[in-house]
Amino acid sequence: MKQIPLVLTLILGVTLTAQAQYRYYRYPSSSKKSSYHKEYRDDFKRRSYLGFKVGGTHTALINNNRPIELGLAPDFQGGLAAKLALGGFLALQPEILYTQSTTKYFGQNQNSRITRSSVDVPILFRFSFGNTTQFFINAGAQASYALDTKTKRPGQPEQTLEYETDDFNHRTGYGAAGGMGIAINSYYGQFLIEARGYYAMGDFANGWMNQPENRMLNVGLSIGYLGRLGR
Predict the structure, then answer these.
(1) CA proximity to 175, closest of 226, 101, 113, 114
(2) What is the 3-state secondary structure (H, E, C) of the chain?
(3) Is the pLDDT of residue 100 over 50?
(4) N or C terminus of the chain with fewer C-beta within 10 Å?
(5) What is the residue-averaged pLDDT of the chain?
């Protein structure tokens, strides 16, 4: 429940940004309108954007150090995203996302569901190919700030572990992220569909690859709309 204000703030920010973008570019001055359309139509890759994305996530098992299996447990991710052009086909894609990732465990005398909530900040390099319709790939790093963890076991009430007494280093992990997708451009913005994976590699308190437990890959599919920045 404590994450509801955060989600509402993200939605409000996205709504106000999208409205401002639409009003600004829906009514350009008549003397500049034709030049804006021609310039924007000629090279979409050199444009920067800001908007939102939402989607679903799922956690997959990479290795198996214990005799357990994972069940299907789709969950939610959403927040702000930007595409900042660096020139030509290269851009920077920073994001701020609220993520819920659920893992269902079976085997080894256990049957449990664990849901982790976090604020994720991926910063990716994006390579786009095409113009009006683009295929893109991206790769980079991601930081993940833990909010809480909920555990549910059969016949027991749900238990919530909060990290309010932990410092920043213990709550913040990092790893590699990357994916691919398709973007469709228009004069006012960009609609995108993207598939992505995130592989956790450690945290600031314990260092690189510090956990001997099973390694997880968080995969997701999202859609988004990014409004045009600048003229």
Answers:
(1) 101
(2) CCCHHHHHHHHHHHHHHHHHHHHHHHCCCHHHHHHHHHHHHHCHHHCEEEEEEEEEEEEEECCCCCCCEEECCCEEEEEEEEEEEEECCEEEEEEEEEEEEEEEEEECCEEEEEEEEEEEEEEEEEEEEECCEEEEEEEEEEEEEEEEEEEECCCCCCEEEECCCCCHHHHEEEEEEEEEEEEEECCCEEEEEEEEEEEEEEECCCEECCCCCCCEEEEEEEEEEEEEECC
(3) yes
(4) N
(5) 79
φ, ψ (nearest 5 deg) of residue 72:
-70, 125
Residue with token string 């095409």:
130
Q: Rounded CA gap, 11 and 5, in Å?
A: 10
Give the pLDDT confidence of 106-135 residue by residue, as tens digits.
766 567 888 899 999 999 999 999 988 999
Comparison of pLDDT for 231 and 217, the residue scoring more = 217
114 lies in which domain range?
4-229
* pLDDT of 227 above 60: yes
Question: What letter represents residue 26's amino acid?
Answer: R
Domain count, the chain: 1
Q: At 112, which CATH number? A: 2.40.160.20
Which pLDDT score, from 0 to 100, does residue 98 have? 96
7 vs 217, higher pLDDT: 217
167 class by beta-carbon count within 10 Å (0-12 exposed, 13-18 middle, 19+ buried)? exposed
Give the pair of three-digit tokens for residue 67.
Answer: 């005799």
What is the pLDDT averaged over residues 182-201?
92
